[in-house]
Design a protein that fits this description.
Alpha-Beta Plaits, 5-stranded mixed sheet, alpha+beta, 310 residues
């Protein structure tokens, strides 16, 4: 129990993991989205779930639903939330019960509640030696670093680097399981004229409004990214049907027309590309969508074009 000083610092647990905790490829994209999304399990909620405080009825219902929907993956997510380490689903439920028992024993010995983060650190580092050289970083600082590294500061969407990482994970899933997906590359028509005529502040407000519209017009499973400048990418997991992908793109196009700057309507053009056996890298898929986007621009803008690979 030499690690109990952790609780006094208010820190959360991060560190290195042993080889047996390595993340399988097939779980990577799903877990990445779960842990980065607004609906991801937060440390405070996991702490309450472990008994550190009483949960509200809404929180209890949320956790029951997550456990039902995710199965044993739910327990992997619990550990990842509080330790930033991955443990395979087939061992996570049993491991969680052991950590809870350890938490209760520590609380009895000390005569006070020992938080789940402390119990997890002590059990994994001192009892099972599953963690080596753990490092403590406060949760707000971890959240700040994650936001800076993964999210575009202006729009709140995933940034360019995160877009490529998520796209690579979807492509890996396609290669292994033939789970298709699509990509929409879009940009704002005549955006330069907005900046030139009305100033960059008006341009920034337009980008922020478009990002908000993208979140409203896409599905919960879709991934919205700011690719760069006035260009955006929307990844459509589990969507390999051209008609469905184009319908989503068209919904976005129509949604953009509700945005106004100085009384003028915003329009966008978009290229849609589907992942198939010809796609070797994320860049190839983006290039297909980019050619379709160029065709949409050349054909008069404010329209959607589907990439057709010859």
């Amino acid at each position: 129990m030499s690690k109990l000083f952790v609780e006094l610092s208010g820190g959360e647990l991060v560190g290195d993991k042993k080889a047996h905790c390595a993340l399988p490829d097939e779980d990577a994209s799903d877990r990445l989205r779960r842990t980065m999304s607004p609906s991801a399990l937060r440390v405070e909620l996991v702490s309450a779930y472990s008994g550190d405080r009483k949960m509200t009825e809404a929180e209890s219902a949320q956790m029951r639903l997550l456990e039902h929907n995710r199965g044993d993956v739910f327990y992997s997510d619990l550990f990842y939330s509080i330790s930033h380490h991955y443990f395979a689903p087939d061992i996570s439920k049993a491991l969680w019960n052991k950590v809870l028992k350890h938490k209760h024993l520590m609380s009895e010995c000390l005569g006070r509640n020992v938080r789940i983060t402390v119990a997890t650190l002590d059990y994994l580092s001192n009892i099972t030696n599953s963690l080596e050289t753990p490092t403590l970083i406060s949760e707000p600082y971890v959240s700040e670093m994650a936001a800076l590294s993964m999210v575009d500061g202006m729009t709140g969407l995933y940034n360019h680097s995160s877009c490529y990482e998520l796209l690579e994970l979807e492509l890996r899933k396609y290669r292994r399981y033939s789970i298709g997906f699509s990509l929409i590359l879009l940009d704002i028509d005549d955006f330069k004229s907005i900046n030139d005529r009305w100033g960059h502040q008006e341009g920034d407000r337009t980008l922020i409004a478009l990002a908000k519209m993208l979140r409203e017009q896409t599905r919960d499973t879709d991934i919205c990214c700011r690719y760069g400048g006035e260009e955006f990418i929307v990844l459509l997991p589990f969507t390999n049907d051209a008609k469905e992908a184009c319908e989503i793109a068209e919904r976005i196009r129509v949604g953009a027309t509700s945005i106004r700057f100085n009384g003028q309507e915003v329009t966008i053009s978009a290229g849609v590309a589907l992942c198939d056996k010809t796609i070797s890298t994320p860049q190839v898929l983006i290039e297909n969508a980019d050619r379709a986007l160029y065709q949409a621009k050349a054909s008069g803008k404010n329209q959607i074009v589907l990439s057709v690979v010859q």
